[in-house]
Specification:
This protein is an all-alpha fold. It is elongated. The protein has a domain of 182 residues: Serine Threonine Protein Phosphatase 5, Tetratricopeptide repeat (Alpha Horseshoe).
Length: 405
């Protein structure tokens, strides 16, 4: 995962870290040049803004603020070199200096925590497992100010969640909330997401519902709540929320697809088809899954077979649907069960599906259709192919082979 694709909060944390490091570097300079002074000035202004924003995030933390000063001038110089390596994006040098600081018995808790935090930030996105190790040590050394300390804790929780280590993610989030008494909705949303993944649906709903119903609700919070409803067999609540989200974001394809999926899960096939058709009319059905879901919606409606045929043929023509076993079986069934019934087209579709099928059942269905239409020679050939590939009821195939008319 590239750093540009990291979650927004992770990116924000990395940016804040970078600003803080710029001031550390400035402190380490013996006699900065005019250019360095100007760069330091800009960094200081940015860092003050970042810290001001951070200070409002965990104002009620119960942890006692540690002393955040280097032990000596030589320590400041070494931290400055670490900062320069980080700003130069020199991963190897950043890690080497950080390891040296961490291993040095003369380094105080602040220096070790800062070194571990910088090394962890450098590795985010390129080696998340190694980054996590450094960030955890930054917490263990316990030398950062509260805002940085708890921001690191939040990133650790995200990395655990990203790696499906749900128990550890939840424990870290609950520790963060307990020690800071924070009501931060992003942190609560992460907790709800983790609870959802752990299939603890009542707790996930209790956590996410206040967020989704707040004036500052984000679409992703609402979507998480919708998923929790759907997974806990509360289809009506899921559909209600999905309708609300879709109405508020009519041009957001994802919201519309979520609404259609909710309708499918609650067997409201006519409504699902309507949502997919609206997207299709705008040229926004571009994925195989989308065509298959629309096809399935129509196949589950009493009068939807002709529309299903239209969707399947269009999907094949556009190379969106694969010409595979499932597609041709669906096409055969749509022709067979539709009004008017189209036997010849059903047989043609079964003839394409049968060689691609995992067993002989499709050949057997083909044989039955052909036999009913008086195509006994073709039916016997298909019946033998059914036996060759294996069927649950071989006697049915043998009866076709034994027929004389």
């Amino acid at each position: 995962m590239s750093k540009t694709n990291l979650p927004a909060r992770l990116l924000a944390a990395m940016m804040a870290t970078g600003l803080m490091l710029a001031t550390t570097a400035a402190l380490a300079q013996g006699a900065p040049t005019r250019a360095e002074e100007r760069r330091t000035d800009r960094a200081n202004k940015g860092a003050k803004g970042a810290r001001a924003e951070q200070q409002a995030r965990f104002p009620d933390a119960t942890r006692e603020q540690p002393d955040t000063k280097p032990a000596s001038r030589s320590s400041s110089t070494r931290l400055g070199k670490l900062s320069e390596a980080y700003e130069a994006q020199d991963e190897a040098q950043t890690q080497a200096i950080a390891d040296e600081i961490i291993a040095d018995e003369k380094s105080n808790a602040y220096e070790k925590s800062l070194a571990a935090r910088i090394a962890g930030a450098q590795l985010l996105g390129s080696d998340d497992a190694k980054s996590l190790g450094y960030l955890q040590r930054a917490l263990e050394f316990d030398g950062l100010k509260n805002e940085e300390h708890y921001e690191v804790m939040y990133i650790i929780a995200q990395l655990h969640a990203q790696d499906d280590r749900h128990d550890e993610a939840l424990a870290t989030i609950e520790r963060l909330q307990s020690e800071t008494r924070t009501q931060d909705p992003d942190i609560a949303a992460l907790k709800g997401n983790v609870l959802l993944r752990m299939e603890r649906y009542p707790e996930a709903i209790a956590t996410l519902k206040p967020l989704a119903e707040s004036a500052e609700a984000k679409p992703e919070w609402q979507q998480l709540l919708m998923a929790a409803y759907a997974q806990s067999d509360q289809g009506a609540e899921a559909a209600k929320l999905a309708e609300q989200i879709a109405a508020n974001t009519p041009d957001d394809k994802r919201s519309q697809l979520n609404l259609a999926a909710t309708y499918l899960q609650t067997d409201q096939y006519d409504k699902a088809a309507a949502v997919y058709e609206a997207l299709r009319a705008k040229g926004e059905l571009t994925e195989e899954r989308e065509y298959r879901n629309l096809m399935a919606s129509y196949l589950n409606l009493d009068d939807g077979q002709q529309k299903a045929i239209e969707i399947i043929n269009e999907g094949l023509q556009k190379n969106i649907l694969k010409p595979d076993y499932q597609t041709y079986v669906a096409l055969a069934q749509a022709h067979y069960f539709g009004e008017p019934q189209q036997i010849d087209q059903a047989i043609a579709a079964y003839e394409k599906a049968a060689p691609l099928a995992p067993n002989g059942e499709t050949y057997l269905n083909l044989a039955k259709l052909q036999a009913n239409e008086g195509r006994l020679a073709q039916a016997k050939q298909a019946a033998q192919q059914a036996l060759d590939k294996g069927v649950k009821s071989p006697e049915e195939a043998r009866r076709i082979l034994a027929r004389t008319q």
